């Protein structure tokens, strides 16, 4: 059913400020800017090799804008939703229905870029947020290809490696992402030294990571979209570039996977805990 992660959505209060932040972080400009489908918000899209990062900010005073402002007031800026790619959204809708995820009706949508006038079309559905334990999950069938990623600056982002979801109930989360959504579990490991149980689910060429705090125990609270790990071919160049732009970053260090290098981006991410990682 799901063959990739199409895009992640990051809610921001000010779209221009968000664009500035992610252009610094990823090392390239957005390739698309448009009114959000349904109105009340504006979006900017940063396309990378394997995923897009879509910033969304409220505009005007309509119902859509007020709903988004209410989310920002309650949760602050940060990750808002995941959109998974499917080849047949009608078939995916039937599967979600059979598995008790209560999807919304399939709808068609279109986006028109304000600069080029280009058009992108897709069809989508969304699982009920209560059934996905608080994480907004869309399934999307593209009718037009994504734009070609623009060239990135030295040490820029080349793709997404991990999206991290924090869960108070790892077995419940594993049943959702593995059994119901059909992602391929590749790792399930508890490590007292980390204080966490980590589960990795392959989705295309990236990982959906579920993280559970062992010290907190199991509860029936909601899951929470949390952080992103971006790929870069040159961590040293990325650190130099980001520090020159005034971004607070750590030194590079070995990653948990042998042969990898990672560093932490401490600000300038619109509330999203962020790593940059050089794959092995």
What attributes characterize this protein structure?
20% helix; alpha+beta; eight-stranded mixed beta sheet; 280 residues; 5 helices; globular
What does this protein look like?
The protein is of the alpha+beta class and 280 residues long. 20% of the residues lie in helices and 40% in strands. The protein has 5 helices and 16 strands. The chain has helices spanning 15-26, 63-75, 89-98, 170-180, 235-244, and strands at 2-11, 32-35, 41-47, 52-58, 78-86, 107-112, 119-126, 136-142, 157-166, 184-191, 196-203, 206-213, 224-232, 253-254, 261-265, 274-278. It has an 8-stranded mixed beta sheet. Strands 10-11-12-9-13-16-15-14 form an 8-stranded mixed beta sheet. A hairpin with an 8-residue loop joins strand 15 and strand 16 (274-278). The radius of gyration is 18 Å and the shape is globular.
